[in-house]
Amino acid sequence: MSATTTQYGFYFDQSRCVDCNACTVACKMWNEIPVGPVKWARVIKWYTGTYPNIRTNNLFAPCYHCENPVCVTAANGAMFKEAKYGAVLIDPAQATNASLRAAWEACPYGSIAFDSDAPDASASKCDMCIDRLENSQLPVCVGSCMMRALDFGKISDLQAKYGTNAQLAGMPDPSTVKPAVVFKPADPKKTLVPYDAAEALTLQATTPDGQTKLYNSQSDIASAAALVKRNVPNFHPASVEESMYFTGDDRS
Fold first, then answer.
1. Among 39, 80, 94, 149, which residue's CB has the most CB atoms within a 10 Å radius?
2. Nearest CA-CA partner of 149 in 23, 249, 243
3. What's this model's pTM, rounded to 2 decimal places?
4. CA dihedral 78, 238, 168, 147 (to 10 degrees)
5. Are 60 and 45 in contact (CB under 8 A)?
């Protein structure tokens, strides 16, 4: 592994992300990635809470170019960490499907993307837009974010500006891999129009004519919520179809 002189990384403000997937689409366009499951700049989506207090969670999840990338070790020569920006890259001359599958499994964020479930599927990943960095440009995902939820730069500068939080609720422990990212958690939800949630649930528990009971209690809602498939961030989907399901509602 090359010695890194300066580590660059990302900043993500979860409170600003609206799941528009502009970062995903811009990344695909810049890197000429066809429509389908290969997404270097994923937006992982999941839901928390129970009705009527539900929250949609969005997570910008490219490769976080960890300072201690366990994927590089697992790839057995198929990946490396370059020195100038600290980017974690695939070595196409050494890469095989098996070596990159092993790297994907080792990576806590599952950052390598496969174009199919076949044994010979092609694999690729975020390269930090090194071609753009060399021309003094931001990564295309950062520049495309209309909500300004993203920033990029030397990780030391980002930490000085935004803090050192490297984990959002539901994400893996960052202490081993040390991802080059800073997160701002979503702001607490605010009730803009005050109402009695318990009374609302009682009113909605029966048909308009008050004759048919639809459910018995809040516990019924909680039990139903537990059946929702997209209730946690999924970094290691079992198939490319599942990958598309967990990375927002786009068709890119």
1. 39
2. 23
3. 0.90
4. 90
5. no
In contact, 176 and 70? CB cutoff 8 Å: yes
The whole-angstrom distance between residue 117's C-alpha and the CA centroid of its chain comes to 20
Residue-wise pLDDT for 87-102, tens only, equals 999 999 999 999 999 9
Torsion angle of the four alpha carbons 249, 240, 27, 160, in this order, in degrees rounded to the nearest 10? 80
Rounded Cα distance, 134 and 127, in Å: 12
Domains in the chain and their CATH numbers? 8-191+225-246 (3.30.70.20)
Task: Give the chain's length.
Answer: 252
User: pLDDT digit string (tens) for 200-229?
Assistant: 777 777 777 777 776 666 677 767 767 678
168-206 b/e with 16+ CB inside 10 Å = b?
beebeebeebebbbbbbebeeeeeeeeeeeeeebeeebe
State which amino acid sits at residue 30: W
Three-class SS state of 68: coil
**What is the per-residue pLDDT across 180-192, written as a single tens digit (0 to 9) for each?**
999 999 999 888 8
Asked if the model's pLDDT at residue 4 lies above 60, the reply is: no
Query: What is the per-residue pLDDT across 106-122, written as a single tens digit (0 to 9) for each?
Result: 999 999 999 999 999 99
Q: Tokens 């308009």, residue?
A: 208
